User: Fold these one by one.
Assistant:
Number 1:
Amino acid sequence: MSQTTAGRASGQPPEQGAESPRGVFGRLFLFLRQVVGELRKVVTPTRRELVNYVLVVLVFVAFMMVLISVLDLAFGQAALWIFGQGDAAG
């Protein structure tokens, strides 16, 4: 007796060569039902939470911009110190 989707343990991929009990439209309908089910679980943040999330992202992005700028300046100065200005008098 072959295993069905319901009989298979959750999270296991279907066996190779095993035929799906549903056709293309059945699988599409199942997928759409699962999408709708997942969308019902989504919780919309309150206005205060949304403002907090936006502020956290903006502060993080600003911090990363400053950090990368400082590192770029430091590595640039280190490269100039190591390799010189490139104006070797010859």
Note: The chain has a mean pLDDT of 84.
Number 2:
Amino acid sequence: MKTRQLFAAIALGTTAAFATLAHAADGKPKQSVGEYASDAAITGKVKAALVADKDLSALDVAVETNNGVVTLTGTVGTAAQADKAAVVTRGVEGVKQVNNNVKVDPAKAK
């Protein structure tokens, strides 16, 4: 189980690192470097918190942060898991607001 969490954390961390290279279509950064770095750090912390929670699969929940507002998307098996993802996210330092757009698909229930 620890190995699975480690691999998930590495994969999510790599994704966050590449996300820092994102720019708008006109080549200008979407935010200032400081704002973007802060949002990337928050995203990383949220993903790590989701990986650490044994009731959630971080691979099922996508995280995007903009000016401290975290948007969760993806699909989980139960409403309790969707709610827990939001609760875990709210507990992360730097999160100002959570938009929980996680869908529930009972077919994914474990």
Note: The two ends are 16 Å apart (CA to CA).
Number 3:
Amino acid sequence: MSIDEILIFHKAGILFEILRPLKAECISVLVVSAYERDYIFVNKNDFDKVKKFFGL
């Protein structure tokens, strides 16, 4: 799954807003940040629930 949006670097808190619904459901994530992209990993047992949150 990827969120392919062009986001402005000076806007802070974008990743937090994306992860907020997962936090509310106690879904663990691993975030890896790279220069131009952030990767969000979730447990495969939670993947279907995560897809519903993001409308996929």
Note: The helical segments are 14-24, 47-53.
